[in-house]
């Protein structure tokens, strides 16, 4: 029986593991090997690592953890979790099982891009999601935003304010957008639908309905996110709806509504960012440790029916 099993070996999961490892607690971190930002060439806005590839940062994390003998790093995909606080059983796709007193969920969410040819192939390169993460690298260049939900207008206004004077919002006829506010801010409005995207090393060509084409340095898209098939569903963790999809509710110590289960990173907040994931991981790791020492200190998140 280990002290904790951590599901997800990216920024939040490895940071949580580090906290428990430094307390000499027995912990296994299970990583499926498909971090959300795996297609990105650089992690920007992260102090000390600005511009370094996410894969390189994660490899440094994994190397750091190898110094702690109570930590086990395991590749695999979790298919089921059963049990309760103090006696959880985690089953992997290969049939192996791990027993743990606590669970930390840090596996992130799944991005759901619009079903438009070319977007998936350029995701993380010239099809981007976050001005803070990628805006500086395309600063001053023509940029496009694809309207996928009401927050897309917010994204276009942000880009127009501080990153580029040439921002086009492709609405495709979406209703509910305040076009007057966008126009006043200098955002160009394109009502034709995006049909295909073709990216190369210097930008992306967008084909619109009616045969029109336009070229931009990057296309910003706010994808929908999904927690489908997450262990959080099996465990019954309470969730809330965010602007792009649902996320797991957590308390001040990263505890969920289920006793003994903690959550960190993108799956536990409506706004994803590496810096937030690092902080969430530290909170989940220390919260989990505190619950092992003082069970009455960290009580499950109370959820109003």
How would you describe the overall organization of this protein?
The protein has helices at 11-22, 54-65, 119-122, 131-134, 151-162, 179-185, 231-235, 274-293; strands at residues 2-7, 27-31, 71-75, 78-84, 87-92, 97-105, 110-112, 127-128, 143-146, 167-170, 188-190, 194-199, 204-208, 213-216, 218-221, 224-226, 239-241, 246-248, 261-263. The strands form five sheets. Strands 1, 2, 3, 4, 5, 6 and 19 form a seven-stranded mixed sheet that branches. A five-stranded parallel sheet has the order 8-15-9-10-11. The chain has 305 residues and is α/β, with parallel strands linked by helices. The mean pLDDT is 95. The protein has two domains: 2-110 and 224-293, FAD/NAD(P)-binding domain, CATH 3.50.50.60; 114-221, 3-Layer(bba) Sandwich (FAD/NAD(P)-binding domain), CATH 3.50.50.60. The radius of gyration is 21 Å and the shape is elongated. Helix 1 packs parallel to helix 2 (54-65) and helix 1 (11-22) packs parallel to helix 8 (274-293). The chain has eight helices and 19 strands.
């Amino acid at each position: 029986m280990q002290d904790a099993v951590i599901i997800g070996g990216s920024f939040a999961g490895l940071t949580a593991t580090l906290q428990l490892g430094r307390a000499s607690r027995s912990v296994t971190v299970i990583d499926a090997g498909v971090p959300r930002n795996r297609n990105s060439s650089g992690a920007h806005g992260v102090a000390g690592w600005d511009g370094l590839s996410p894969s390189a940062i994660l490899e440094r994390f994994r190397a750091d953890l190898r110094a702690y003998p109570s930590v086990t790093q395991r590749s695999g995909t979790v298919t089921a979790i059963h049990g309760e606080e103090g006696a959880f059983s985690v089953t992997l796709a290969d049939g192996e099982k791990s027993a743990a007193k606590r669970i930390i969920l840090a596996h992130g969410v799944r991005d759901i891009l619009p079903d438009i040819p070319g977007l998936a192939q350029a995701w993380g390169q010239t099809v981007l999601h976050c001005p803070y993460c990628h805006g500086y690298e395309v600063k001053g260049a023509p940029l496009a935003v694809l309207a996928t939900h009401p927050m897309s207008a917010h994204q276009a206004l942000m880009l127009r304010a501080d990153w580029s004077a040439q921002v086009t919002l492709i609405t495709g006829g979406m209703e509910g957008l305040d076009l007057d506010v966008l126009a006043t801010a200098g955002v160009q409005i394109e009502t034709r639908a995006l049909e295909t995207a073709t990216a190369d090393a210097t930008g992306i060509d967008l084909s619109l309905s009616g045969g029109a084409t336009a070229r931009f340095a990057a296309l910003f898209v706010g994808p929908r996110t999904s927690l489908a098939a997450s262990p959080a569903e099996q465990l019954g963790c309470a969730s809330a709806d965010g602007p792009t999809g649902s996320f797991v509710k957590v308390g001040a110590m990263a505890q969920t509504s289920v006793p003994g289960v903690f959550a960190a990173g993108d799956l536990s907040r409506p706004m994803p960012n590496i810096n937030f994931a690092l902080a969430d991981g530290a909170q989940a790791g220390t919260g989990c440790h505190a619950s092992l020492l003082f069970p009455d200190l960290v009580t499950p998140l109370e959820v109003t029916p």
